[in-house]
Specification:
The complex is a heterodimer of chains A (159) and B (290). By secondary structure, chain A is α+β, with helices and mostly antiparallel strands. In chain A, 33% of the residues lie in helices and 16% in strands. Chain A contains five helices and five strands; from the N terminus they run ββαβββαααα. The radius of gyration of chain A is 16 Å and the shape is globular. With 290 residues, chain B is α+β, with helices and mostly antiparallel strands. The chains are: A alpha+beta (159), B alpha+beta (290).
Chain lengths: 159, 290
């Protein structure tokens, strides 16, 4: 198949990538760019651990062709902290012990970020709904939800 | 999964590619169904024709009729202001599709073209008497959505033609829609049963008119229960009349037993969800006119 040349903006940095049409954003992130914070599991958009933000919205990188991301902004967990400082969501997850095995956490945090960017003061039910597209295989949802609510409280006054 | 990838810049160019590749080609909208099926080896197109650079396909237009471009996402339907009132059924269906990740990319055109018998948005569109426009090399054709849903997983979809838009008439004063879905959890769930209803009241507000009852996951396609609709048409919206519509829909549907539920349970759900969806329509009509 003819390779295609793509320009992706990943975590604010421009990447020129030569790849094949069938490769997904997840393939490119993990294998080509070494950004393994984005996890790979079901490859059918069921589990959500591959969640990244595309132009600010949560998407499943496992079923998104890299070609479809040409010219667009991708944010992965590696790009969330600024200047060596963890994002409020990352700090809240650590403080609340929300991380068990850790596999789903990048996706949980990015899903939460997309939601909080549009909903500054969510209820617990809304947070649960916002995270519903990502499965925690440890079933440790309560502390994840607590962490997101705490981060929302911290972030809200700055909006 | 290997293929050639194309990004046409207009409907005409997309249609030209579709006609050239025929059965070897597939149009790519959100990809939430197509890419999964390709990865499973169920579909093996040699050419994937992405629609992302075709302008205008993601627009929602309201001018008498409501027109949804094929690439309108579930999220766009969920957030559309004008759909929050009497067209709320459309929002209720869009917001239970997958999780946010799916709704951000999955499209209404894809929901139709994929033709799952358990599609959530499609029953609401059926209840709205929607029509679908396809463009092929010989021009555009508009067909009732119902006609397209011939068989499960197989719309009258011809790979050579491009689904460009879905349209339905604007709702009148005394009418409303509602949608209900039964599943084991609220997100990331294929419906066990879903029900869409549309109802209008006559100007005296005594009788039901334009009754539409469409169901998902209880037949080989999403489908309208003509028996239930006919029984309620022209009658007063009493609890008994709504319950009878539920019983008739349950009798007329053709559910299967599978890993998600037994046929018997599906019928029981239809019997209870149909009157509930109809009551929601009535409540919405009251709300909108009070």
């Amino acid at each position: 198949m003819t390779p295609i040349a793509l320009t992706l903006s990943i975590n604010g940095e421009r990447h020129d990538v030569l790849t094949e049409p069938h490769r997904t954003l997840l393939d490119v992130l993990r294998a080509d760019l070494g950004l393994t914070g984005t996890k790979e599991n079901c490859l059918e958009a069921e589990c959500g651990v591959c969640t990244v933000l595309l132009d600010g919205r949560a998407v499943n990188a496992c079923i998104l062709l890299a070609a479809e991301c040409d010219g667009r902004e991708v944010l992965t967990i590696e790009g969330l902290g600024r200047d060596g400082r963890a994002h409020a969501l990352q700090r809240a997850f650590a403080e609340h012990g929300a991380v068990q095995c850790g596999y789903c956490i990048p996706a949980m945090i990015l899903s939460a970020k997309a939601y909080l960017d549009e909903h500054a003061e969510p209820t617990e039910a809304e947070v649960r709904e916002a995270l519903a597209g990502t499965l925690c295989r440890c079933t440790g949802y309560q502390k994840i939800v607590d962490a997101v609510l705490a981060a929302a409280r911290e972030l809200a006054p700055r909006r | 999964m290997t293929f050639h990838y194309h990004e046409p810049g207009s409907v005409a160019e997309a249609v030209e590619l579709g006609a050239r590749f025929g059965g070897d080609g597939r149009f790519l909208a959100g990809g939430t169904d197509l890419i999964v099926q390709m990865r499973r080896g169920k579909l093996r197109p040699r050419h994937v024709i992405s629609l992302r650079r075709v302008p205008g396909l993601d627009a929602i237009a309201e001018s008498g009729a409501v027109t949804l471009g094929a690439l309108v996402s579930h999220r766009a339907i969920e957030c559309h202001r004008a759909f929050q009132g009497r067209l709320r059924g459309l929002v209720e269906a869009a917001q239970v599709v997958g999780g946010h990740q799916i709704r951000n990319v999955g499209t209404v055109g894809g929901n139709i073209a994929n033709a799952s018998p358990a599609a959530d948005v499609v029953p609401v569109l059926l209840a709205l008497d929607a029509t679908v426009t396809w463009v092929g090399a010989s021009g555009a054709r508009t067909l009732p959505l119902e006609k397209l849903l011939l068989e499960s997983g197989q719309t009258a979809e011809r790979p050579r033609e491009l689904l460009t838009s879905i349209a339905f008439p604007a709702l009148g004063e005394l009418s409303a829609t509602a949608f209900l879905k039964a599943g084991r959890r609220k997100a990331m769930e294929i419906s066990i049963v879903c029900v869409a209803a549309r109802l209008a009241l006559d100007p005296e507000r005594r009788r039901c008119v334009q009754v539409r009852i469409a169901l998902g996951a209880v037949a080989p396609t999403t489908w309208r229960s003509r028996a239930a609709e006919a029984a309620l048409e022209g009658r007063a919206p009493t609890p008994e009349a709504l319950a009878e519509a539920g019983r008739l829909a349950a009798a007329e549907c053709r559910p299967i037993s599978d890993v998600r539920a037994s046929a018997r349970y599906r019928r029981l759900l239809v019997e209870s969800l149909v009157p509930r969806a109809l009551s929601r329509c009535l409540a919405r009509i009251q709300e909108a006119s009070s």
